[in-house]
Amino acid sequence: MTATTHDPSRPAMTHAEVTRDIVNTLRTPSRGYYMALFAAIGMFLIGAATFVALLKEGLGLAGYNPPVFWSVYITTFVFWVGIGHAGTLISAILFLFRSPWRTAVYRSTEAMTVFAVMTAGLFPIIHIGRQWIFYWLLPYPNQRWLWPNFKSPLIWDVFAISTYLTVSTTFLVVGLVPDIAAVRDKMTGWRKKLYGALSIGWTGADSQWRHYSRGYLYLAALATPLVLSVHSVVSWDFAMSVIPGWHGTIFAPYFVAGAIYSGIGMVLTLVIPLRRVLKIEHMITEYHFDNLAKLTLLTGTILFYAYGMEYFVAWYSGNTFEQETFWRRAFGPQWWSGWTMIICNAFVSQLLWFRKIRRNLTSLFVISIFINIGMWFERYVIITSSLSNDFLPFAWGQMNPTWADWGILVGSFGWFGMYFLLFARTFPVVAIQEIKEMIPMPRRKGGAH
Amino acid sequence: MAKTVSGVLASFKYEDSAVDAIKGLKAKGFKDLTVYSAAPNHHIDEALDQPVSWVRAFTLIGAMTGCAAGFGMSIWMAADWPLLVGGKPIVAIPPFVVLGFELTILYGALSTVAGILILSAMKSLKGRAYKPEFSDDTIGLFVPCSPEQRGAVRTFLEGTGPEEVTEHGA
């Protein structure tokens, strides 16, 4: 019952082989897996220790320096929110477009989305100073019945991020249920009981598929505008103010393209080693990476255009504050961060025009690291360079990150990595049922599907 | 332990055999069939010919409720303590669109999941025979019928090319 395989999106496997190979990823993990997990836990502990120090001593430990009061923490917040976007693009938007290559990679990207947004959600709390009253952000009144200001983009952000976390978690969990049932049916002992409880009675009956398939389609349709809105709202945290370098109408599409670009960078960083560790190279092939790379090229080129347009508008506006801000981004005291952003994002992505590079996993992995670095610096440049030099030269000042900034940044990677690795060990990282849906079942009478 | 439902269970490795069996049973008047498959299968859907799921009603009602809640909350809270900020109107619709939109999506998604769970639970599968290979590479077809009918159903199913046919129930 081997399937026909000239379509590269469809693995040359039977349904039974798909179940077997994916269930095997959940068996005893390799030494490399444990090393990666311990490294992630170690990084997380560095972050946790730094957070305890921040709680004890206050935000003075971080590199906040007037007038720069949004710095590394908000940079990292935007970075992690952005990472999440590729997951929803691949799982929801490409689902609606019936793009077959998404099937092999969407589960891992969707998990990445949830954990990235969970990571991002920590940063506003770390950043606010008095972390123990973070719930003041929620829409309930103070003692004098004064409600939050719904005209503030910061409150929009609370709603956008919490909706995004809830909906992407829901989407991930709903997609997992049939796969957990498939794992349940292959396991024995306590694992069978555990996966049995998590599969909430799923049997793959027609009455379940009928509502499930419809519901999944609607979830994808709801997640699609959501993902475009979330980073737009994040961009409005900046664009709604009048700070030079922030007050731009291109911010929403610019941020959304950047988010998807950074997210796919992270997908490549995670999936290239993961497929090897889990021995699923035959399911996630060069074909899938080629398509991911094309998406990276597209979004990287949009970013290239946006960077150019920012400089053009600053020049064309005749506004001296805008011009000064953009001049300083390229030639000011932190010129190195501005050029890191431009080189890593605008120029490195252009290497992906070459098919040989798109299909070479080593080069793709190296490019993905450049993307991660470049996109973190993009947010750092946007945030700190604009705040450093606004309208009043006597109030100008530079931001210099301290150990407390780096400690939390390292911790965030550990926190994210820890969840991702535990997920990859516990749940199928390739969607069993969707892969099977693509492989036609054998027919006694023969003939095409 | 749920009471076992009386009926016949057939396992199929071939899709067209399962589809033929479903069509044949429907022609004989068996409406309450349960077909198990590891993935959605449009040939089986066509053979079963079921109406479109009502999940869409849950999605629509949830989304509309969310939209009303988002606008309602922000308008009511702004009007509850009118505080003029930056000369902007107390009730300013453009910024409240963000709240309306986010809650539309949130409520729509959550009610969609509730819809899947509620509608799936409306047809009880308790006591119906199931085999673990149905989540792997085999299509299962369970035909609920009285003990007297089981022989005839079994004979029919055996003629459609299954891997195995078993009878269930007291």
Question: What is the topological layout?
Answer:
The complex is a heterodimer of chains A (about 450) and B (about 170).
Chain A: H1 15-24, H2 31-57, H3 72-96, H4 106-127, H5 153-184, H6 189-198, H7 206-239, H8 251-277, H9 286-317, H10 320-331, H11 335-347, H12 355-358, H13 361-388, H14 403-426, H15 432-438
Chain B: E1 7-12, H1 15-27, E2 34-36, H2 42-48, H3 55-80, H4 93-122, E3 139-144, H5 150-158, E4 164-168
Antiparallel strand pairs in B: 1-3, 1-4, 2-3
Oligomer class: heterodimer
Instruction: Tell me, rounded to a whole number, the average pLDDT of chain B.
Output: 91
Q: What characterizes the major β-sheet of chain B?
A: 4 strands, antiparallel
- Global shape of chain B: rod-shaped
Described by strand count, sense and barrel closure, the largest sheet of chain A is:
none
Distance N terminus to C terminus of chain A? 13 Å
- H and E order of chain B: EHEHHHEHE
> Helix/strand-derived class of chain B?
alpha+beta
